[in-house]
Design brief:
Layout lengths: L1 H10 L17 H6 L3 E10 L9 E10 L2 E7 L6 E8 L1 E3 L3 E14 L3 E12 L2 E12 L7 E13 L2 E9 L10 E10 L2 E8 L7 E9 L1
Antiparallel strand pairs: 1-2, 1-13, 2-3, 3-4, 4-6, 5-6, 6-7, 7-8, 8-9, 9-10, 10-11, 11-12, 12-13
Length: 217
């Protein structure tokens, strides 16, 4: 998750300037970035013990970014056998304190149908990063099923390839006694691959384990 929002911030970088003629000059940095697509593919594998709502399942997500444009597709995020498609706008900046913000609008279809405004955002300072993504699903069939989904992390990275922290999640894909799931995470990266392990409700007798893998290209 942190690698995706940092890639979105890089796409929003400012233009470079030069003193050569237009015929001699290479394209400005922002213009070059705006013409390049970046992609990511991730899969979150949920191990949910003793749940009547969902067996163990995989939640895949695909993203595509080009300049200000953010596109995204999710499956099993809002509900089992539900998909969603998203259009968003990339914003970001900062030097000592960095930030990104991606407002989005999505459509949900499948086992749940509706419309969903959402967001992704991050705030970074030195080796600390706060990341959050959320969406409010407005169910097309029954407003009683409207629900706010959220995933948030606070992490510390002692090295570029290693980080750990705390994580919270609010979901309806599975049910527990806790409205907000909270837990711990530890992540590793190698080149363009990230692998993160999450343990939700670690004080429960049977905590929920989520293992994610993300590839950027």
């Amino acid at each position: 998750m942190p690698a995706l929002v940092l890639a979105a911030a890089a796409l929003c970088a400012g233009q470079a300037s030069g003193q050569v003629t237009a015929q001699q000059a290479p394209p400005p940095a922002a213009e070059t970035h705006a013409k390049k697509w970046t992609f990511s593919a991730s899969a979150y594998t949920y191990f949910v013990p003793d749940s009547d709502d969902a067996d163990d399942y995989v939640q895949p997500t695909l993203t595509a970014d080009r300049g200000w444009l953010h596109l995204e597709a999710r499956y099993n995020y809002e509900a089992i056998d539900a998909g969603s498609a998203w259009l968003g706008f990339n914003f970001g900046g900062g030097t000592n304190v960095t930030w990104t913000f991606v407002p989005m609008i999505g459509g949900v279809f499948g086992s749940t149908d509706g419309v969903a405004p959402g967001y992704k955002g991050s705030l970074g300072w030195r080796k600390l990063e706060l990341y959050s993504e959320g969406e409010w699903v407005f169910d097309a069939g029954d407003s009683a099923n409207n629900f706010f989904y959220n995933w948030s992390e606070l992490t510390y990275a002692p090295a570029e390839w290693f980080w750990f922290g705390v994580v919270t999640q609010r979901t309806r894909v599975y049910q527990t006694d806790r409205d907000i799931q909270r837990g711990l995470l530890v992540g590793f990266s190698y080149k363009r691959l990230e692998v993160v392990g999450h343990v939700f409700n670690p004080d429960d007798s049977k905590p929920i384990v989520v293992v994610s893998a993300r590839l950027t290209f």
